[in-house]
Design a protein that fits this description.
Alpha-D-Glucose-1,6-Bisphosphate, Chain A, domain 3, TATA-Binding Protein, globular, binds 6-O-phosphono-alpha-D-glucopyranose, single chain, 34% helix
């Protein structure tokens, strides 16, 4: 009989461990791995209040081989025991020692907020950011959406950087997120967007429940797509002390993320990797010293300071850029597009659809687009003709360990570089969530994404017969 014994457990004081803080802790402590109970994105009954993530010893999400092994072990577990009446006060920092089954067992309560603050201080120039906020009287509105980032936001933005207490909102973590859905996007963070639109703020930001994702908006709620956010941070990377010290290696994005970062990579002569959706695909490249900055359209941005995406880090990166350029967010974006051109991007989510018809839709579309005769086919919408250059179900070979990930999303790339991407979400909580991603590049940068992308959206909806399969006229979320 196999017996697995845990001898030490780390718990954040008051239980407020964000995903980036955990990732940092696991790496620092060289722990064998961690099972992380994170605040999930799904409000609802108590059983939905936490999601479980398994992080490996590099502090990153478990790769496929580890989760597959966990699944296999789960099938042969014959029993597990619960230690009854083990009392621990998680408000007090310190080591709590116990004897369980005649063996030592320690529960260590740590100050995870301070730990994370120290890490951020090693990366960013806090004095510069603080002076900038003060001298410009910068107005920010940071929304923790009642998730776990609240104490981190209070410590970093208010206590350390001198923001006003009314510059941060919903900073008390609540197990039901106060009834809101802590998803930092234009739909679920609408409260923040409205406040910034109607107020006089220079920057607005929101985080998800476990603090690894972020949304950035500028004055009057000027929206920064995650793809653009990544590209802009790449362009200004050297204004962040960490990168001056550790150097700038390659960049990466997930396949559905628009390729704005590729253009920055080309200009700076850096490797740019396109990986499947999921942060776990970045870890090997970082560990191999080939990647220092990456992001996903799903509001994840991060660097090789840890092996997870990091919401607060992204806001500190933006504040550093604003300090460095002395410019507002919209102006920074306009300057960026003037140099590189603009990658218009939109994502349509159709949440909680019936699973079977969605599977059928994907397999029907896969058959259609992988016919050899599909390459070279033309599609017309409005006045525009799009000719297919590449069409496949995306697969990826990890450049480091050569592991292969197949069927990572349907992708149609047209000759002008525009793309239609469709995949089923791996995180939706019930039924199927269809994600349709559209992006297109233009030198003209003052257009409106929904207008610029309309012809491609029409082509995608028709080609996939989405309405027929999902019985939906409208997406639930538009990014
Ligand atoms: O499969 P989806 O619902 O599109 O979600 C995709 C996202 O899932 C999780 O949040 C992962 O941590 C992200 O790295 C990934 O981008």
């Amino acid at each position: 009989m196999m017996k697995h014994i845990v001898s030490k457990v780390l718990v954040g004081q008051h239980g407020v461990l964000s995903t980036p803080a955990v990732s940092n802790l696991i790496r620092k402590n060289k722990a064998l791995g961690g099972i992380l109970l994170t605040a999930s994105h799904n409000p609802g009954g108590p059983e939905n209040d936490f999601g479980i993530k398994f992080n490996c010893e590099n502090g990153g999400p478990a790769p496929d081989n580890v989760t597959n092994d966990i699944f296999e072990i789960s099938k042969i577990i014959t029993e597990y025991k619960i230690v009854e009446n083990l009392v621990v006060d998680i408000s007090k920092i310190g080591s709590n020692k116990y004897t369980v089954d005649n063996k030592d067992f320690t529960i260590e309560i740590i100050d995870s907020v301070n730990d994370y603050l120290q890490l951020m201080k090693e990366i960013f120039d806090f004095d510069k950011i603080k002076n900038f906020i003060k001298s410009k009287q910068l107005k920010m509105l940071i929304d923790s959406m009642s998730g776990v980032t609240g104490p981190y936001v209070n410590s970093i933005f208010v206590e350390e950087l001198g923001a006003q207490t009314n510059n941060v909102i919903r900073t008390t973590p609540l197990t039901d997120f106060g009834g809101c859905h802590p998803d930092p996007n234009l739909t679920y963070a609408k409260d923040l967007v409205d406040k910034v639109r109607n107020g006089d703020y220079d920057i607005g930001a929101a985080f998800d429940g476990d603090g690894d994702r972020n949304m950035i908006i500028g004055h009057k709620a000027f929206f920064v797509t995650p793809s653009d956010s990544l590209a802009v941070i790449a362009h200004y990377l050297e204004c962040i002390p960490y990168f001056k010290k550790h150097g700038v290696q390659g960049f990466a994005r997930s396949m559905p993320t628009a390729s704005a970062i590729d253009l920055v990579g080309q200009k700076l002569n850096k490797e740019v990797f396109e990986v499947p959706t999921g942060w776990k695909y970045f870890g090997n490249l970082m560990d191999a010293g080939r990647l220092c900055l990456c992001g996903e359209e799903s509001f994840g941005t991060g660097s090789n300071h840890i092996r997870e995406k990091d919401g607060i880090w992204a806001v500190l990166a933006w504040l550093s850029i604003m300090e460095n350029t002395g410019k507002g967010i919209e102006e920074i974006l306009n300057n960026h597009w003037e140099i590189y051109g603009r990658n218009y991007f939109t994502r349509y989510d159709y949440e909680e659809c019936e699973l079977e018809p969605c599977n059928e839709m994907i397999s029907t579309m896969e058959k259609l687009i992988t016919e050899p005769s599909f390459i070279g086919k033309s599609f017309t919408a409005g006045n525009t003709i799009y000719k297919v250059k590449v069409a496949d179900n995306f697969s990826y070979i990890d450049p480091v360990d050569k592991s292969v990930a197949n069927k990572q999303g349907l992708r149609i790339v047209f000759e002008d570089g525009s793309r239609i991407v469709m995949r089923l979400s791996g995180t939706g909580s019930s039924g199927a969530t269809v994600r349709l991603y559209i992006d297109s590049y233009s030198r003209k940068y003052n257009g409106v994404a929904s207008v610029m992308l309309k012809p491609l959206i029409d082509i995608a909806l028709e080609m996939s017969q989405l309405k027929k399969f999902t019985k939906r006229d409208q997406p639930t979320v538009i990014t």
